[in-house]
Amino acid sequence: MWEKEYITTITGFSIKQTKDGGYIVACSDNSSEDTIKEPSELVLIKLQSNDEIEWETRWLDSEEEDYVEIESINARSVCETDEGYITCGYSLISSNASVKSNVSSFNKNGEFKWTKNYSFENKSRCFMPSYCIEQTADKGFIFVGYKKGTADTNEHYITAFKIDKAGKIEWKKTQLSQNTRK
Q1: Mean pLDDT over residues 87-108, rounded?
Q2: What is the rounded average pLDDT of the residues 9-34?
Q3: What are 181's strand-pairing partners?
Q4: Which pLDDT band, with edges at 50, 70 and 90, does 64 fall under?
Q5: Which domains does the chain show, CATH number per domain?
Q6: 8-state DSSP, 36
Q7: Is the distance from CB of 78 to CB of 25 less than 8 angstroms?
Q8: What is the strand order of the sheet 10-17 is part of?
Q9: Burial bucket for residue 102 (CB in 10 Å: 0-12, 13-18, 19+)
Q10: Does residue 62 carry a pLDDT above 80?
Q11: Which stretches of 81-140 are assigned E, i.e. beta strand?
């Protein structure tokens, strides 16, 4: 049994034991208390079974052309896959201040493979973070979260997306949360 304290600005949100007996930790690095409004980066930490850090990966590369609109990525869940690791959380999109569900994929060494943002609407602004991801029997993934309705209704919807291993949407569902129905 061990206990370890790491002094850092990183906030850990999800930890899972890996097949090799170590652990994978999904984090966000943000010196502000308000991770929705302040830029932050996704951090993935691989711990060995003896609590030593095997590697740490940070990802928020807005210099890449495909990701230039992503201002911030926050990880809330991590899952080990046959090929590496996958995280879900949310991205802040700078062009329209939207918060969209984000899924990012990494290989076994923590090297970035791809990231995709998801939403139900094609409109310019939305608020739809995700909080949990799991691999499915067909080697794809399912992730869940919520989305806010319009400001005048204050409705909240439970969201679920089923994606393949490359991040392509197979289906998506939304359900009005019971506590917001009138």
Answers
A1: 83
A2: 82
A3: none
A4: very low
A5: 10-180 (2.115.10.20)
A6: T
A7: yes
A8: 10-17, 23-29, 41-47, 53-59
A9: buried
A10: no
A11: 84-93, 98-107, 112-118, 130-135
